[in-house]
Amino acid sequence: MSASGGTKAIVAALVANLAIAAAKFVAFLFSGSSSMLAESVHSVADSGNQALLLVGGKRAQRQATPQHPFGYGRERYIYAFLVSIVLFSVGGMFALYEGYEKIKHPHELEHWYWPVGVLVFAIIAEAFSFRTAIKESNALRGNRSWKEFVRHAKAPELPVVLLEDLGALIGLILALGGVGLALLTGDSVWDGVGTLCIGVLLIVIALVLAVETKSLLLGEAAGAEEVRKIETALVDGDTVTRIIHMRTLHLGPEELLVAAKIAVQHDDTATEIASAIDAAEARIREAVPIARVIYLEPDIYSETEASKGPDPEAAPGGPAPHPAGH
């Protein structure tokens, strides 16, 4: 897993959510608050999500097989995508349903001190979990903004935990606001309104997670800085004179595929070219250690061919060639 930091943040969130889920459900039983029921289901869903991330990280460590020659690194993306589905269906949709029912059939809150006390406890526990996720993310984030980190991180665990914890904190504040307004006004409809707001929040976060993990599942290229390092390492100015074209693809968060057509001298021998390719691969791995699968194709650079531009039909995802006779 992308570092023990990712695992540490997941475990911290899992422990916090299990404790919070139990406390919220007890508070719901004593008070009848729909916000507390929605929040307890939210915490149960979050606990399941963290368990999914741990399972995905474990399964991604399996060795490559003839059927899966590039390994199982993308399992982490699959389980992160499942997290977004669980958060949407279990957390968000249930909260919307419960909020609607509470507004349609309001009933007075009982033993109000239970939900208030549990919510305060939950905010403290979630803040601890969120702090852990922030601390571990900062080690990988560098100078990027939080938005850029969530959008461009290749390891899905920390962005998922960050968004879940942020959503949990905002949801707890919404629940506390709904319960507080219900107590102040004597109208328990506000408890249902708070529950609806929690549902909308969870669905928005789930959609963001789904979009980001879908991009990872489709396959993302290396970051701009990694591409620059690979390009610099490839060309030695002697045997490898330039890069004709190059493709990179993340096989997993810590495994990168590099495929490039490189220009060599027209009078180089096969032995010289083979040695140049071996040296280029070594330079790439030294510059970008996660570049573990490298395919280099030697060719003679032609200004005439280069001026024609790239062939879209030769690129992955390009248009299919027309059938003969059409």
The Rg value, from CA coordinates, equals 26 Å
Helix content: 55-70%
Bulk shape: elongated
Mean pLDDT: 83
N-end to C-end Cα span: 51 Å
Beta-strand content estimate:
5-15%
Please mark out the parts with pLDDT under 50 across 5 or more consecutive residues, or reply none: 1-5
Give the total of beta strands: 3
Number of helices: 10
Category from helices, strands and their pairing: mainly alpha
- Arrangement of strands in the largest sheet: 1-2-3
Q: H/E element string?
A: HHHHHHHHEEHEH
Largest sheet: 3 strands, mixed
Model description:
This protein starts with a helix and ends in a 19-residue tail after the last helix. β1 (240-252) and β2 (255-264) form a beta hairpin. By secondary structure, the protein is mainly alpha-helical. The protein has helices at 3-31, 34-59, 75-104, 113-141, 146-152, 157-185, 189-218, 224-234, 270-287, 303-307, and strands spanning 240-252, 255-264, 291-299. It contains 10 helices and 3 strands, in the order ααααααααββαβα. 66% of the residues lie in helices and 10% in strands.
